[in-house]
Amino acid sequence: MVRNYKIILQYDGSRYDGWQKQGNTEKTVQGKLEQVLERLSGSPVVVHGSGRTDAGVHAHGQTANFHMETELSEKELMQYLNQYLPEDIEVLSLDIVKDRFHSRLNAVEKTYVYHIEMGPKKDVFQRKYIYGLGKELDIERMEEAAVSLMGSHDFKSFCANKKMKKSTVRTLTDISFCQKGTKLTVSYTGDGFLHHMVRILMGTLIEVGLGERKPEEMKEILLKEDRQAAGYTAPAEGLFLERVVYDD
Amino acid sequence: MVRNYKIILQYDGSRYDGWQKQGNTEKTVQGKLEQVLERLSGSPVVVHGSGRTDAGVHAHGQTANFHMETELSEKELMQYLNQYLPEDIEVLSLDIVKDRFHSRLNAVEKTYVYHIEMGPKKDVFQRKYIYGLGKELDIERMEEAAVSLMGSHDFKSFCANKKMKKSTVRTLTDISFCQKGTKLTVSYTGDGFLHHMVRILMGTLIEVGLGERKPEEMKEILLKEDRQAAGYTAPAEGLFLERVVYDD
Questions:
Q1: For chains A and B, what is the number of CB pairs under 8 angstroms?
Q2: How far is A156 from chain B (nearest CA, A)?
Q3: Cα separations (Å) of B145 from A13, B107, B116, B175, B219?
């Protein structure tokens, strides 16, 4: 009997061309998962992710689903996956869900977390998972700017895809800042995110924190609906897809 | 004026042949430090470590010292080092100390910490800093065995160097266990450690935890003064030199 499996997984995105399979490349997280599942099942298995993560972006809680027929129990299937997946991808949970569950279409909320090192050198043991900015940020200014970004807006100015034909309206329900020593962590929660949206938001907020932009500019940037109006795209290495929330 | 500098540093030992310079190899932590200091000073600088760490062993608090003449302040010298050292080595503090201070000869206590994953898969983001045992351990048995190891003993059975001519007597003041989920952390504190001593102690205690040895065997192993009597050498990747303590 074919069943629908939902998995939550974490990965170190450093050596991958992102989540989404592209042509023949096996250097994607989706590609790695499908490869292992196909070996088990004997026929191709399509894995649907809650969304793409860019090349180099990490995940603590990416969610995906796939339909497959197997005699393995959920526990055995998860063990099989973890045994054959490379050591930079790990399945944290695996459950049988309703047949119509779809990890992307049913997602109602996502949280991304961005890590910044403001000090001169990145922590040796975290160096692949943090952006080494090396400059001090005025976090109060950034918090002030973030207020204008919350709520429902057209985020076209914060979207890397210029030819985006679908709606670019999204709702940000929370942007929060947490400083520990010279490390800054910024969490973004919303109903969905456009291509590069978190990284462009982060780059623009960094420019505010460095004093290069005023917090008040955020409103104007949103209204311009133009990628050129916003700041730079912060690097992928500091970004984690933290969790995906579903209704049921 | 030539000054004596004391540094505390952390490093990811994964890609190094250990602390100690060997011939021409630059793939050692000491070699990297001396290379950067020689470039600054214009003449060779010898860096003395508190002790060697093996190939693949990490450090949160290795301590070293070197004599050098420079016009840079302590803060500038530390910044210079961190700028030119690779990103897997970081100087955490730098101070001018008394001329006769020697990081190895004056060390009175060291702590090593060993990390073990008992679950089936290592955490993706910690995978290079933990030993993937993948088996459950009986920690109470290990704690019982550890009691016999504490205090002053001849640790010849736990020394990889068979031709050791100096005393193999050392004093272990603490072995403590901390479990979090499927992760086990074991700390070893003592006045000094022989070649591979922590890793052989760890391998032997793991054998006790797996039920392959009895806790009571520890006393016999110590008395045999024979490396063959003890257990296997646990892999380097799980081991950290945590800190070195000095009298003043």
A1: 44
A2: 33
A3: 41, 27, 17, 10, 9
- Chain B nearest C-alpha distance from A14 (Å): 11
- Look up tokens 């894995």; give the residue: A47
ipTM rounded to 2 decimals: 0.89
Tell me whether strands A151-154 and B58-69 are parallel, antiparallel or unpaired.
unpaired
At A210, list the tokens.
């460095």
Cβ-based neighbours of A243, under 8 Å, separated by 6 or more: A60, A61, A110, A111
Contact yes or no for A82 and B12 at CB 8 A: no
Q: Is A187 exposed, middle or buried (0-12, 13-18, 19+ CB in 10 A)?
A: middle
3-state secondary structure of B221: helix
Class of domain A108-246: alpha beta
pLDDT per position as a tens digit, A217-247: 999 999 999 999 999 999 999 999 999 999 8
Between CA A151 and CA A128 the distance in angstroms is 32
Residues of chain A with CATH 3.30.70.580: 3-97
| Sign, CA torsion A56/B83/A200/A127 | positive
Fold of A3-97: Alpha-Beta Plaits (3.30.70)
Mean pLDDT, range B132-156, rounded to an integer: 97
Mean pLDDT of chain A: 95
Q: Which CATH number fits domain B2-97: 3.50.50.100, 3.20.20.140, 3.30.70.580, 3.90.1150.10?
A: 3.30.70.580
Helix (H) or strand (E) holding B61: strand B58-69
Is B88 one of the catalytic residues?
Answer: no
Q: pLDDT per residue over A120-165, tens digit each?
A: 999 999 999 999 999 999 999 999 999 999 999 999 999 998 888 8
Checking if the pLDDT of A25 tops 80, the result is no
Return the pLDDT at A165: 84
Candidates B10, B121, B124; nearest CB to A12: B124
Q: Which residues pair with B113 in a beta bridge?
A: B187, B240
**Count of CB atoms within 10 A of residue A101's CB?**
17
Report CB contact under 8 Å: B124, A83. no
DSSP assignment letter at B125: G
Residue A115 phi, psi (nearest 5): -110, 130
pTM of the predicted model, to two decimals? 0.90
CA angle B105, B109, B111 (to 5 degrees): 125
The residue annotated as part of the active site, out of B12, B17, B54, B138, is: B54
